[in-house]
Amino acid sequence: MAQPLAITAADTEFCEATPEQRELAWKLNGVAWARPVSIETYVAREIHLSEQELTKDGNCKYWVLYLKGYPRQIIASCETTRKEVLISENGVSRGGYGYGIASVYTNPDYRRQGMAATLLRHVQEAMDRDSDLSVLYSDIGRQYYSNLGWHVFPSEEVTLTYIPPTSTSSNETPALQHTQPESIRYLRIEELRNLCDVDKRHLCARFSQIPADGASHVAFMPSFAQMSWQIARAEFVAGKLLNGKSPENRGAITSSGRAWIYWDHDWKSKKLKVLKVVTVMESSPQQRINDIRVLVEAALVEATTWGSGDRVVVEPR
């Protein structure tokens, strides 16, 4: 491996990326992240995602650290998306704003010199001007971001794999595959906005009941903007990999309307990701268990139908 080009923070400049710098950063990180699509397709996807309800009109900002005097020489980059949050402290709940940080990447030519840390310290200062908090999800362990000031919270991932029942006849089809479970119906994208609003009202009601327990409680607001962004990303990739085909089911809801689930397809990893499971407050514990069971079964059907490796991934967030 080639030695990185030696620089210090004094050799760098930080700014909100210009359109040209954004594309240069995407081409850089696309070398690592674009597969199974080409870098050109990956850049087109990122442009498409920057124009969604969640990200347009400056709601998502793209940041770069570049070599002083050479704005095209990108050293490190990331993006931050501003979202509504709920905060409860000392028994009092209020609304606020928080940032989700994503796509932190350092040009391989400048790694192991603290450049990502330099970038993120600048980003922290920018976020602190108009938000209450920020969050990111690390795939490089806990220590790095903890050293930069983020508190560590465990985020467990559960992977469910469909195992067909043993068939007594070679002509029989496994009961689950391609069969809609009873007691649910599938959701289309046009239904999600109203469900996100219902979820938001229930979350606000829950936060209003949190007692003064000495702890700070935080939740990102459910939003159609977030869900539709996830769907837009999956749809774009599906259009490239599946000859224009794309799933219509965006989740499922129980026939009682007490609970529902949102999901999207991760075509790169061949898995179905559960974005959220919602159960309303009026449900009894046993009702919630039953509702979650049939909703997860619906997700397994979706995974097998679209060849997502028969895997459903639940990431509690």
TrEMBL record:
- Give the highest taxon in the source lineage: Eukaryota
Query: What SUPFAM superfamilies does the database record attribute to this sequence?
Result: Acyl-CoA N-acyltransferases (Nat)
Pfam families from the UniProt entry: Acetyltransf_9, GNAT_LYC1-like
Which InterPro entries does the annotation name?
Acyl_CoA_acyltransferase, GNAT_LYC1-like, LAT
**Ranges where the LYC1 C-terminal domain occurs:** 177-309
Q: Where is the signal peptide?
A: none
Q: What is this protein called?
A: WGS project CABT00000000 data, contig 2.4
Q: What is the lineage of its organism?
A: Eukaryota, Fungi, Dikarya, Ascomycota, Pezizomycotina
